[in-house]
Amino acid sequence: MAPRPEVGTDSSPSLSNDDNTPAKDSAILPAYSTVDLVKEAPDEDDPWNLPELIDTGVKWSELDTKGKIMRVLTAIAKFILLLGLLYVFICSLDVLSSAFQLVGGKAAGDIFQDNVVLSNPVAGLVIGVLVTVLVQSSSTSSSIVVSMVSSGLLDVQSAVPIIMGANIGTSVTNTIVAMMQAGDRNEFRRAFAGATVHDFFNWLSVMILLPLEVATGVLYKVTHLIIESFNIESGEDAPDLLNVITDPLTDSIIQLDQSVITGIATGDPAARNKSLIKVWCKTKTNTTFWNTTVENCTAGAVCWEEGNQTWTEMNSTWTDYQEKCKHIFVNVHLPDLAVGLILLGLSLLILCTCLILIVKLLNSMLKGQVAVVIKKVLNTDFPFPFTWVTGYIAIFVGAGMTFIVQSSSVFTSAITPLVGIGVISLERAYPLTLGSNIGTTTTAILAAMASPGETLSNSLQIALCHFFFNIMGILLWYPIPFMRVPIRLARGLGNKTARYRWFAGVYLFLCFFVFPLSVFGLSLAGWQALVGVGVPIVVLVVFVVIVNVMQSRCPHFLPGVLRTWDFLPRPLHSLAPWDRVVTSVFGFCGKHCCCCCKCCKCCKCCQKEEDEMMRRNSTKSLEMYDNPAMSKDEDTKEAGGGTHF
Fold first, then answer.
1. 271-285: string of b/e by CB count within 10 Å (b at 16+)?
2. Alpha helices in 273-407 (DSSP H)
3. Which helix (H) or strand (E) holds 617?
4. pLDDT tens profile 325-375
5. What's the rounded Cα separation, in Å, for the pair 494 and 188?
6. Angle at 131 between CA 126 and CA 136, to 5 degrees
7. Is 599 helix (H, G, I), strand (E, B) or coil?
8. Beta partners for residue 321, in sequence order
């Protein structure tokens, strides 16, 4: 058998037919063995493709009776455990909302109190974002707005931008949940994109519909026409579906008095000194009336004369506290901030733990045929020509599920880990999220219809404004595939955060805190300051977006200097320098260290991964095509001679 050529030596046989040509002067063409071709590493998979959930266990047909019984019992136990974890997960979201209200609820009430600022549509928008982020509930912020409108402190037209902001603020919860999956790069990529597709839909809808509303008042006029056209009467309250199950646990942990935040927002001075923690769950208000004589009748009082005396009616009201609440903080004499911080830490810990366990449990359950069935049901489209129907059915499913759980935050937070592990595709999560936006507004409409007669019209009109805002957003960003811009933006952000994971926290902080607070601060300084600072920034952002699009689509139309951003300092057009700073500050091992959770072994494991990647990318070993009949000879020779290639 001919010897194999060695890389980097001149002892390889010549491939030329000329016997006189020296071997060292001839070019050696590499020939790979069939074995080497089979073992060749495949091209890097698209990280957005749904991963194959492979069944690594024993097949059902190969199990005996005992094994089949054990598998069934194990599956039932896992399903029950999954339901229990989902229950605790939803309850922890509820407690997280209560914690945020304790920490920032009174601040939210103070923000709403400045009516001059609320009359500015942009300020109203960011106030809606800030308040919803602080109280972690769009329902709470919407109810505050309804109370202010009903009391005459705010008109419906000024309330519309606040409702738009509440729609944006409610998407912060599932973005926080997505950050819990940062352990695996591809899972984090998909989960963060699945969460932020909601953010991009809301922000893009506001960018189009807020100027339209300011210019034409379309939402106000449409909803006012509906209210005037139908003789709507007060009905029953919205049905409590999920709350019936979760309230026993959450009410045993903490109960809040929502009227305190509303009282602060509506200017009640007594509410400022009250605690948000509810102490008395059952109270009764008693009023006693009696007649008495007075010297002079006060203005507004009912007075009458009998003989030579002037009589008036007096009353005294007191509250009879009948039954104390039974949550664990009812007798704890701590300020609201301290209780809020305690609950915030505990709820985040439980939320993270439940999410990690849910993901691991789903990964163990979704194997083999089960995974195939679930992925087919969730991600398969109807056959042509009814392919387009699938997305709209997903919208209805999202709306229905949100109506059942009575919270868009709970529903979107529940599907985020499923997007991360690859059970639901980003294209399917998008219509489910849009349906969730619709579902939460239908719940608000039912709640508004249960309002008393004097507040029914205003509360229902605000709920309908919220509903039509989401409907118009869906009509903008879903029916035409080309217009599904939120999916493309979410993919881009997912890729960026998968490479630089710290950027997810920066995005969350900038998008939901720094930007709204900056706009709110400029609004306090007056509309001149807001326009003077805001307009140049908006023009710059629009210019950068246009140049980026032209750089990728038609660079020949741009001047030479603008065809790339290389003329700028690198920190202004790349995250790589910032990545080095952040990783050094936080003590990470390297720029691409993907094992920060492995404690002190971080550098070693990263070095191993880099070495493995270098081996894959290095030049393949040169092997001649082997004759199978001689392979035994070769193996014997290798074993005996210890030849190294």
1. beeeebbbeeeeeee
2. 336-365, 368-379, 389-405
3. helix 602-617
4. 888 888 888 888 888 888 888 888 887 788 778 777 876 776 555 556 666
5. 8
6. 125
7. helix
8. 283
Q: What is the reported pLDDT for 472?
A: 93
Cα dist from 330 to 88, 232, 251, 278, whole Å: 22, 40, 11, 7
Q: Produce one character per residue of 392-411: b if its CB has 16 or more CB atoms within 10 Å, e if not.
A: eebbebbbebbbebbbbbbb
| Averaged pLDDT score across all residues of the chain | 75
HSE-up of residue 188 (Cα within 13 Å, Cβ side): 21
Rounded CA-CA distance 466/476 in Å is: 16
Please state, in angstroms and rounded to a whole number, the distance separating the CA atoms of residues 352 and 517: 28
Stated as kind and residue range, the H or E segment containing 304 is strand 303-306
Dump pLDDT digits (tens) for 181-237.
Answer: 777 888 889 999 999 999 999 999 998 999 899 889 899 999 888 888 876 655 555
Helix residue ranges per DSSP H, 217-335: 218-229, 243-253, 259-265
Mean pLDDT value across residues 27-50:
48
Tell me: the pLDDT tens digits for 134-173?
A: 777 777 777 777 767 766 667 788 888 988 998 888 888 8
Give the DSSP letter string of 530-598.
HHHHHHHHHHHHHHHHHHHHHHHH-GGGS-GGGSSSTTS-GGGT-SHHHHHHHHHHTT-S-TT---TTS
Amino acid at 410: V
